[in-house]
Amino acid sequence: MVLVESILALAFGFLGLCCGLLRWNEVRYRKKDMPPGTMGWPLFGETTEFLKHGPNFMKNQRARLYGSLFKSHILGCPTVVCMDPEINRYILMNESKGLVPGYPQSMLDILGECNIAAVTGSLHKTMRNSMLGLISPPMIRDHLLPKVDEFMSSHLSNWSDQVIDIQEKTKEVALYSSLKQIAGIETGPVSDALKAEVFQLVLGTLSLPINLPGTNYRRAFQARRKIVEILKDVIEKRMSSLCSQTDMLELLLKADDNMKSKLTEEQIIDLIIALIYSGYETVSTTTMMAVKFLHDHPEALLELRKEHFQIRKGKSANEGIDWNDYKSMTFTRAVIFETLRLATVVNGVLRKTIQDIEMKGFVIPKGWRIYVYTREINYDPYLYPEPLSFNPWRWMNRNLDSHQYFMLFGGGSRLCPGKELGIVEIATFLHYFVTRYRWEEVGGVTIHKFPRVEAPNGFRIRVQSY
Ligand code: HEM
Questions:
Q1: What stretches pass through the bilayer (predicted)?
Q2: Number of domains comprising the chain
């Protein structure tokens, strides 16, 4: 009897403590005119529910709280989640009104203080201008596309009669191709050394900033240190070289009138890391998912092949593709947009308030994060009828990519500067992939869609020549 009473007392005590903690966390963040919402547990907030249930957590909170703007506590910060397309657009367009980037501390620590996503105001303008100078459409046409083409053509050879992990391959292709464009790094020991470190760095940017042995955060920090060392070495060799090269590093180091302003070595390194990081996961995941969707939709694959064989007509086997060929890939572009939409490669972007901000009658306090959650726009049946079907044709001749809620590449002053280059890389990969090979899946594949799109057990396909 005494034992039962003790257990009951303990259980009630524990329940009381939990209620007390939850209540305390609510009261702590309570302010006048805040959006509705729950703050979860002290310190952890609702991070576990968010990471576990992802999109469903968002939809449930919206339904429960009757609104597209609600507060929560995720990834270590008090956060307002915004699912309203109109307000999301407003937030992206108004950095100057106190809505600056708000990426997690782990990401900022690992990507560097001068990383473009961490800087604001005039330094952001300088870095962005430098970046736009490196990856603008004329640069792509004259310098980058030939490099990407040569890389894809040689990298996508000898895949016949093999079982490959297309997730691994697309990661490798995205990274090695960008290394070649950025610093002329050919596939070999330097790119291999960078590969291991970059993979580690990416894992750490979405982790809790706990600097303890064995954590992803600590490993990513160490990876950053090694990447900086390798890049310093590459820069040193380049500075002492008498030969002139035509890559991004050359433009950054020999910045003259073409560049708006010369960057320090530290800024150049952070800019290169940002270029590698920003293009790596987005491009590799979209390429992998395009392969998946095309496999599952033979009629779309047929149409895509038609477009690419038309381009190959009149070309010799080793002849590459040029800007005009790329511009004629209208269906390929549609496949890429549809893949980005349906797979939701980017769920949203993060901002931070630097002053109290009023929105839709609510006040978002200074220092809070805003999660500009754009995922739901991708499945809006008014914008995209039958939103869950893969239908690249919806993008043909409808200017969908210029509608005001098109946010696959962000918007405003942070609109992705690598948009065109990313499309060029995926389109060139698809060109060689579908004209050289046919493929079938081996053993099925599981794909996780949140918080990042990935095939946790790999994605094996059997490849044969076409
Ligand atoms: C399919 C491919 C890609 C997608 C879906 C994508 C998506 C995005 C999105 C949504 C943003 C906005 C982030 C924000 O507002 O905070 C962004 C920014 C950025 N992207 Fe991309 N991206 C892609 C490819 C690339 C590539 C290939 C590069 C580099 C070569 C790149 C470089 C950047 C940079 C540097 C920023 C930061 C811009 C700034 O803060 O001013 N992206 N990207």
A1: 6-24
A2: 1
Q: Which atom of ligand 1 is nearest to the CA of 116?
A: 40
- 279 CB less than 6 Å from ligand 1? yes
User: 61 in a domain, yes or no?
Assistant: no
Supply 381's token pair.
């049946």
**DSSP letter string over 324-363?**
HHHHT-HHHHHHHHHHHHHHTS--EEEEEESS-EEETTEE
Is residue 18 domain-resident?
Answer: no
How far, in Å, from the CA of 360 to the mean position of ligand 1?
28
Centroid of ligand 1 to alpha carbon of 274 (angstroms): 9
Contacts of 149 (CB under 8 A, 6+ apart): 320, 321, 322, 428
In-domain check, residue 131:
yes
Tell me: is residue 416 an annotated ligand-binding position: yes
Residue 149 belongs to domain with CATH number: 1.10.630.10
Question: Is there a domain that residue 29 lies in?
Answer: no
| 0.85 exceeded by pTM | yes
Q: What is the pLDDT of residues 232-256, one digit of tens each?
A: 999 999 988 878 788 889 888 876 6
Q: Is the CB of 349 under 6 A from ligand 1?
A: yes
pLDDT single digits (tens) 266-318: 889 999 999 999 999 999 999 999 999 999 999 999 999 999 999 999 899 88
- Ligand 1 touching residue 204 (CB < 6 A): no
DSSP structural state of residue 45: B
Mutational pocket test of ligand 1: of 89, 272, 282, the residue with most ligand atoms within 8 Å of the beta carbon:
282
For residue 31, the CA-to-ligand 1 centroid distance in Å is: 35
Please give the residue range of the domain that contains residue 249: 75-465
